[in-house]
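Assess the record.
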Amino acid sequence: MDVEGSPGARYQNGFFRMRILYGVHGYGRGHATRTLAVLPHLAARHQILVLTGGDAYETISPDWPCVPIPTLGFVYSRGSGQRERSNWHTLRRNLPALLDLKWGGPTLDLVCQVARDFGPDVIISDAETWTHHAGAALGIPRISFDHIGILAYCRPPVAWSDALEAHFDGWCYRQLMGQPQRVLISSFYPAEPRCSGVHVVGALPRQAVRELVPSTGDYLLAYFNRGADQLHPALLDALDGVGCPVRVYGSPRRGRQGRLTFLPPSNVPFLEDLAGCRAVVSTAGNQLVGEAIFLGKPMLVVPERCVEQRMNARAVERLRIGMCAAPRRVTAQRLRAFLDKADVFAAKLRQCVSDGLNDALAALDQFLHELGGNGAAQAQARPSDAARDNTTGSASGTSANVPGGALRDPEATGCVG
């Protein structure tokens, strides 16, 4: 009889059952929903333990084993009559955590101990810095799987006015995440990898989204991940003045105010409202945009104060599936102009559906095969054809050559600049 952890117990149906420690950045819900798209498939073959905090813990922990850990996050401060992201206050808030990461403080010690106890073969991290650093300290192979890494490991279209900030953000990302062995990027628009070991796939709608039947209702859906800061009075007045009901998520408010209905955070009810709305007004997170595209929903995106969101917002306009507007420029008139074009955007959306799930799972299978040790190599004689055939130039399967060894130093291979 095989016991858990013995060689026999780790082979099931011809596959090597690996232990995967999955770190998920807890700020906002996009990292969590991307993770939920792949967790059921990974858990069917492997043993999974998730480390996360913040919004992601609330989203994932009801259905999956999770260990709560601290989360780095952004801080908003008053600026030009409204609250917006403050780089200075964000640095000050996160400085103790950054020192913990640099010098091996109690939080990093905790994550390292969890990793030792669990004994993972591989760590997958969705922009989660503690698990990246713990993996590096313990010599555990790492797969980076997120969207923000597009700034560090790809050549996305960046406006000239954002070029310097994009370079800086990519550098900061590499300092926080270190040097993983493999990189997987999910993006609703294509981007060319800069170096080997990097694979780009389309957006990843979770299973709950795939089960929905979209319809076109008479209401707008508004989602702002930090509504207490982002939904300033002028924006709320604009939403209320558009002339139709608006269901608002992300605000601490509840109940009705004019045409606005403020609703609590949720998974299924939010997705049902997303599937049934006329259009979406939201921040420009990659994951929500990808799920809105999948459901055929035009979007007016209001990017947060960061390069990645501005880049996503420009992609929405470039693909002609919606509009973008700076927070101070969202007016009832602009919202009505957006709705006037909703049918045109919806027609274009039908040509832009981006479903990267199969490509992502194929890439993960290949990466796990390459990094998981002799047991995995014996159980899987070769990687799947889908994972090996990664020479297309579209967002659903763009890849550089993936070697068997570690990801080469980005600084040395043109992954920067």
User: Anything to note?
Assistant: Residues 1-9, 374-406, 408-414 have pLDDT under 50 and may be disordered. The chain is about 40% helix and 20% strand. The domain at 212-349 is CATH 3.40.50.2000 (Rossmann fold).
